[in-house]
Amino acid sequence: MNKAAVSLEEATNLEGGEGRYSIRLDDAWEIWGPNGGYLAALTLCAAGREAEIPRPASYYCHFLTSPDFDRVELSVETIRRGRRSESLAVRMTQGGKEVLFALVRTAADAPGYSHQEAAAPPVSPPEASQPLERVKEDGEPLFRFWNNVSCRLPEWEDRETGEPVTREWVRFEPTHPIGDPFIDAARPLILLDTFGWPAVWQKYRGADYVAPNLDTNVSFHHLAPESDWLLIDHECPVAGEGLLGVQGRVWDARGSLLASGAAQLCCIPQP
């Protein structure tokens, strides 16, 4: 376990009830400020507190501003509640300023068609992949966020230098069974939000720009609380006019597609 790891359960432990919640943002989840996936996870978990159907189906959000590591307020509004699905809106504010607006959809288990045509990329399994640490010259993590996950770089045959693609095995620390489906879904949500820029970095090496997310859009296909290692498979197939279009998938170690998503990133000159 990483020494300074903060579990997702601890990091998303909201205070409050009846649609009104608050939490002090933990700087253990810092990348260029509070990590966007961490902020998104908070709103997903706030929706989970109000949902009557305990199964997230999709998530979409706009990042409106980067907050300080201080207390934020979250309000949850039920847009529609049906027997099969719910729609919930979540607003995050800090000091009266809008931080994030999210829409969360739930869906109950029901009979229906079942198939998976997509196949996980042929990469080495986590136990045969190289441990990867993002650290500075002094050995400290590049950002504190990386204390909360273990990463391993797999091998794959068609890997090409300079291709805007990243594939990594990621395990959230500490590892233990996850009982809350919204916290389980928060894992691929955080990965799909976070790893778009690393995919871009493979091509440009980040010399001139950084690119925070404007939004994040995720569909949750399956939950896998028993799977510690998740494979993030992300790419940037198009870029132009200051925008980067990224898309990705998250797989479990058995090759099940857990979630897929996309986002627009906005280029900002490197400080």
List keywords for this structure.
single chain; alpha+beta; Porin; two-stranded antiparallel ribbon; 15 strands
CATH superfamily descriptor: Acyl-CoA thioesterase, double hotdog domain
Domain tally = 1
By CATH, the topology is: Porin
**Quick one: CATH class?**
Mainly Beta
Name the helix and strand elements from N-terminus to C-terminus, one letter apiece: HEEHEEEEEEEHHEEEEEE
Strand order of the largest sheet: 1-2-4-5-6-3-11-14-13-12-9-8-7
| Secondary structural class | alpha+beta
Provide a concise account of the structure shown.
The protein has 271 residues and is α+β, with helices and mostly antiparallel strands.
Write the layout of secondary structure elements.
Blueprint: H1 8-11, E1 15-17, E2 20-24, H2 36-50, E3 56-63, E4 71-81, E5 85-94, E6 97-107, E7 130-132, E8 149-153, E9 165-172, H3 181-194, H4 196-204, E10 209-210, E11 215-220, E12 229-240, E13 243-252, E14 257-266, E15 268-269
Antiparallel strand pairs: 1-2, 2-4, 3-6, 3-11, 4-5, 5-6, 7-8, 8-9, 9-12, 10-15, 11-14, 12-13, 13-14
Helix pairs in contact: 2-3
